[in-house]
Amino acid sequence: MGSVIIGTGVALPSRVVTNDDLSAIMDTSDEWIRSRTGVQQRHIADPGVGASDLAAEAVAEALRNAEMAPQDVDVLITATMTPDQYAPGIAGMVQERSGLGHIAAFDLRQQCGGYLYGLDLADALLASGKARCVVVVGAEVHSGYMPYGASWEILRGERPGPVDPVDHAAATEARGWAVLFGDGAGAAVLTTEEDPGTGFIGSVLRTDGSHADLIEVLGVGFRHQPYVDTAQLEARAHWPSMNGMELFRQAVICMPAAVREVLAETDLTIDDVSLVIAHQANDRILDAVRKQLGIDAELIPSNIARYGNTTAATLPILLHEQQAAGRIRPGSLVCFTAFGAGAHWGASLYRVPGTR
Questions:
Q1: Where are the domains of the chain?
Q2: Contact 15/45 with Cβ under 8 angstroms?
Q3: Which of the listed residues 39, 139, 306, 310 has the most CB atoms within 10 Å of its CB?
Q4: Rg (CA), the chain
Q5: Which superfamily, per CATH, for 2-193?
Q6: CA distance linking residue 119 with residue 338, whole number of Å
Q7: Which is more confident, 317 or 355?
């Protein structure tokens, strides 16, 4: 039996922040952001809305699209790097808000690779018979990271300005990473198909801890005593730090390598692939991956202009959009690939049920 996706759903906050909006609170411009990242706008959650809230919305839509009831689900897998609170993770919150009953619920912390790892775990649970229906959801509220201070009031339209100089300086200091991210969630419902040639037919997952420093948050952790204090906050240790050039290099090497590896393991070639659902970190990374694999732009679609990098939610949001656009047809071979902090990366192949 193969593990197949029978329904998808997304949840996006209604508030949209454009590059021009950000240029009002920091030293940046639409051209500066677009040329470096491809991002034009991002969705931003309101205060009090967490990853678990968006995840529950996405789960509800995915179940509706799958024509499944909450009580049909055996396992929930959640992936996020921005949980509502330090502990516990969001899996239990999403389980309760989704009315799934007292089922097993996993939290995964592979960051941008989280959804890819979640799909592989779901496939293993279904293939082993430990589950008959699994929901995998990726959800992020990155806005909590953003050091915008009182400038949030300007972004939310609560006042026109002016920007406090201290807030402007902090936002400008963080612009290298802050402009990249957006909030959102995506979910998929998986079950089994009798035809062994359909569903997930191969996967490659890899981790290299020697690259853990590519993207990291050094503060607010238990190597510190206490785990959070004023000194860490003053040192910006609670901000993400990113080695952009090396991150780019590793992503461009590792994602295409994983795609080639999983294709070789299944005796297929890149010419057999109908669509690549790739992590949406940066349009320049996507362009480089296309060149590495020697495929046209339409085979690796991009939606980062509208959403920014939604980390664990990028794959399911793009999957949902491509499904709605009719690009995922019966018999299509879809390749998922991602690279994230840790470093965690990989690729998986999915044969859509139906006539080949």
A1: 2-193, 199-351
A2: yes
A3: 139
A4: 20
A5: Thiolase/Chalcone synthase (3.40.47.10)
A6: 12
A7: 317
Contact 105, 91 (CB under 8 A): yes
How many angstroms separate the CA atoms of 75 and 77, rounded?
7
The percentage of the chain sitting over the pLDDT mark of 90, rounded to a whole number, equals: 96
3-state secondary structure of 63: helix
What backbone torsions phi and psi does residue 351 show, to the nearest 5 degrees? -95, 120
Measured between its terminal Cα atoms, the distance across the chain in Å is 17
Q: Which two tokens stand for residue 220?
A: 């607010």
Do the domains 2-193 and 199-351 sit in the same CATH topology, yes or no? yes
Residue positions annotated with a catalytic role: 112, 279, 309
Alpha helices in the chain (DSSP H): 19-23, 30-37, 51-66, 91-97, 114-128, 151-155, 165-173, 175-178, 230-234, 244-265, 283-293, 304-307, 314-324
**Is 148:8 a contact under the CB 8 Å cutoff?**
no
Under 8 Å CB-to-CB from 185, ≥6 apart: which residues? 10, 11, 12, 51, 54, 55, 57, 58, 137, 138, 139, 140, 310, 313, 316, 317
The mean pLDDT value of the chain amounts to 95
Question: What average pLDDT score do residues 121-149 get?
Answer: 96
Among candidate residues 303, 305, 252, 244, the one with its CA nearest the CA of residue 277: 303
Examine the pLDDT at 1 and tell me if it is beyond 80: no
CATH of 199-351 among 3.40.50.700, 3.30.260.10, 3.40.47.10, 1.10.10.60: 3.40.47.10
CB 290 within 8 A of CB 300: yes
Residue 256 corresponds to which tokens in the numbers above? 């295409």
The H or E element that residue 140 is part of is strand 134-140
Closest CA to 190 of 125, 140, 93, 113: 125
pLDDT in tens, 297-353: 999 999 999 999 999 999 999 999 999 999 999 999 999 999 999 999 999 999 999
Going by C-beta distance under 8 Å and a sequence separation of 6 or more, which residues neighbour residue 57? 9, 11, 185
Does residue 356 carry a pLDDT above 90? no
